[in-house]
Amino acid sequence: MSTITKRVLLTFSGSISGKPIVSELVRKYDLEINIYRASITPNAEGHMAIDVTGEEDMVTNGLKFIEKNDVNVSRTMNSLAWNEEKCVSCGNCLSHCPTEALYIANEASREVRFDGEKCIACMSCVRNCPFGACTSLF
Ligand code: SF4
Ligand code: SF4
Q1: What is the pLDDT of residue 76?
Q2: Residue 5 — φ and ψ, nearest 5°?
């Protein structure tokens, strides 16, 4: 069985914000959790952007476990929203993005694009985009 890493965004309601659901992933499913960003307030909706690493079936079962506990698990989006219409491809963000999630897609036109798979939600681009094309979802 191979070891895999999945990047997910967890969204949970205020009623379960105090429950140790993420630590259960470590304990019950032997997973490593790398938290990129978290916004947790008692009794309010919370968010957590994490990488989950472990044996493939344990990752799958662990994510199913937290979904059963009323946590929404989004596998495709992260906590950064990039607005293509607002982006003018000025390039200011490129040197601030540590993973090249923001990149030049076309050398001739110098068009900038966003690859959500590479984004680690450091939010450096949010601080460095003069046009408001990068915003934090939480
Ligand atoms: S949040 Fe960080 S990693 Fe993601 S696109 Fe912005 S600068 Fe790059
Ligand atoms: S700084 Fe903002 S407008 Fe400029 S390329 Fe990056 S995302 Fe686009």
Answers
A1: 58
A2: -125, 130
**Residues 50, 15: one domain?**
yes
Q: Which ranges of 53-137 would DSSP assign to H, the alpha helix? A: 56-68, 124-128
Q: What is the pLDDT at residue 57?
A: 96
Q: Residue 30 belongs to a domain with what CATH number? A: 3.30.70.260
Give me ligand 1 centre to Cα 116, in Å: 9
Report CA(98)–ligand 2 centroid distance (Å): 15
φ, ψ of residue 65 to 5 degrees: the values are -60, -45
CA of 42 to the centre of ligand 1 (A): 28
Per residue in 70-80, is it b (16+ CB within 10 Å) or e — as a string?
ebebeeeebbb
Number of domain units in the chain: 2
Query: Could you count the other beta carbons within 10 Å of the beta carbon of residue 13?
Result: 13
Nearest-atom index, ligand 1, CA of 123 = 1
Find the length of the chain.
138
**Predicted pLDDT at 36:** 82
Q: Examine the fold and report which residue of 45, 74, 103 is the final residue of a domain before the chain moves on.
A: 74
